[in-house]
Specification:
Largest sheet: 7 strands, mixed
Number of strands: 7
CATH superfamily: Vaccinia Virus protein VP39
CATH architecture: 3-Layer(aba) Sandwich
Helix content: 25-40%
Number of domains: 1
Order of helices and strands: HEHEHEHEHEEE
Oligomer: single chain
CATH topology: Rossmann fold
Distance between the termini: 38 Å
Structural class: alpha/beta
Strand content: 25-35%
């Protein structure tokens, strides 16, 4: 696992094997960022990374110039690793790490984001995956013109949900994209 582009390009992220994570692969992450590059200039983008795990995606956004990144995860080992990496990369102001249950966080969050990335455990049931976009759109947590990306197992289908736009498959993983159009 490594940071693919930006200020910290090539930095290897060596997470402890004891973490309860399934990190987004470099190939899938590179493809995801190629899609996002066509929609956003990262320096002005506010990012929310849910179920952040190793912080792989959060750190990539920060490396590419996103000045407002929030990584949320419940696991203390994951939070410790993200904190360690953010210290190593000297990410300070604008890089926020929150240790909390994602659903509790979403129910009280007030700030809107341009990009929300959610990579819940694949062990979640279909209804748990579906609740993520529902809560985000009901609570108005995505800016107009914003994008929600939910990473999930290939056998799951989220295309019936409101604001669904498209998906991309990478190995056994799928990124489902949801967009909030500008008015």
């Amino acid at each position: 696992m490594r940071i693919i582009s930006g200020k910290h390009r090539g930095k290897k992220l060596r997470a402890p094997k004891t973490l309860p994570v399934r990190p987004t692969t470099d190939m899938a992450k590179e493809s995801l960022f190629n899609i996002l590059n066509n929609h956003y200039y990262f320096d002005g983008v506010k990012v929310l990374d849910l179920f952040a795990g190793t912080g792989n995606v959060s750190l990539e956004f920060a490396s590419r110039g996103s000045e407002d990144v929030t990584a949320v995860d419940l696991d203390s080992g994951c939070i410790k690793f993200i904190r360690q990496m953010s210290d190593e990369l000297k990410l300070e102001e604008g890089f926020t790490i929150v240790q909390e249950d994602v659903f509790k966080y979403l129910k009280k969050a007030k700030a809107k984001s341009n990009i929300i990335f959610a990579d819940p455990p694949y062990a979640f049931e279909q209804d748990e995956f579906e609740s993520i976009p529902k809560i985000i759109f009901e609570r108005g947590l995505l800016e107009e013109g914003g994008m929600l990306i939910v990473e999930h197992f290939q056998k799951m289908d989220l295309s019936h949900l409101e604001n669904y736009s498209f998906n991309r498959k990478y190995g056994s993983s799928v990124f489902s994209f949801f967009e909030l159009p500008e008015k």
